[in-house]
Design brief:
The complex is a heterodimer of chains A (112) and B (115). Chain A is built from no helices and 11 strands. In chain A, the strands form 2 sheets. In chain A, strands 2, 4, 5, 9, 10 and 11 form a 6-stranded mixed beta sheet that branches. Helices cover 0% and strands 57% of the residues of chain A. Helix content of chain B is 0%, strand content 50%. In chain B, strand 5 and strand 6 form a beta hairpin. Chain B is globular. In chain B, 38% of the residues are buried. Classes of the chains: A mainly beta (112), B mainly beta (115). The interface between A and B is medium-sized, with 24 and 24 residues.
């Protein structure tokens, strides 16, 4: 069965600093990979996804993630954090026909 | 507007009193799913449905029932709620649940408290 590990339940950055949220996965077949974001009191919405092709994926709001097969990682980055980026971020993996499995989430805190 | 609608958004109930959380989508999606979200545990899948009349258990199905009589609706039923079912529940749908990187569209969530 597939699994997702997000390192750090909380990550704190200053406004303007680099955002790095880590995600590692295990999967027996090449997976589809996703990052979802949850703003307070809302449902989840897609930030970006990797299916096939280019391993560097760009998403909304300046976020991007790189699929590294050798490291089984799909870390999320943003060069410069904004206050509006404060939210909970979920990495998810879907190997082939299997259902989607979510990580436990990382809360991003942005201070002025 | 394309959306997944859940009702009620908030509910406080007592142990043993049957309740239903409704979920409806207007995107003609084949796949629908229920998740519960608990602090420190992320989202865990309760049940999912690949299409009408096809449902299957997720990771935490105990204490829940679902049905999929119509494509657009996927209600979650708690026959005899218990306090450990106090949680935030999300319904989600996608075009299909099979092979492929189909994106889930989520409802706004239903916060359930069982006393």
């Amino acid at each position: 069965a597939q699994s997702v590990t997000q390192l750090g339940s909380h990550v704190s950055v200053s406004e303007g600093a680099l955002v790095l949220l880590r995600c590692n996965y295990s999967s027996s077949v090449p997976p589809y990979l996703f990052w979802y974001v949850q703003y307070p009191n809302q449902g989840l919405q897609l930030l970006l996804k990797y299916t096939t092709g280019a391993t560097l994926v760009k998403g909304i709001n300046g976020f991007e993630a790189e699929f590294k097969k050798s490291e089984t990682s799909f870390h999320l980055t943003k060069p410069s954090a904004h206050m509006s980026d404060a939210a909970e971020y979920f990495c998810a993996v879907k190997p082939g026909y299997s259902t989607l499995t979510f990580g436990k989430g990382t809360m991003l805190l942005v201070s002025p | 507007e394309a959306q997944v609608t859940q009702n009620p958004r908030y509910l406080i109930t007592v142990t043993g009193k049957k309740l239903t959380v409704t979920c409806s989508q207007n995107m003609n999606h084949e796949y629908m799913s229920w998740y519960r979200q608990d602090p420190g545990l992320g989202l865990r899948q309760i049940y999912y449905s690949m299409n009408v009349e096809v449902t299957d258990k997720g990771d935490v199905p105990e204490g829940y029932k679902v049905s999929r009589k119509e494509k657009r609706n996927f209600p979650l039923i708690l026959e005899s709620p218990s306090p450990n079912q106090t949680s935030l529940y999300f319904c989600a749908s996608s075009l299909s649940g099979g092979q492929g990187g189909n994106v889930l569209t989520f409802g706004a969530g239903s916060r359930l408290t069982v006393l």
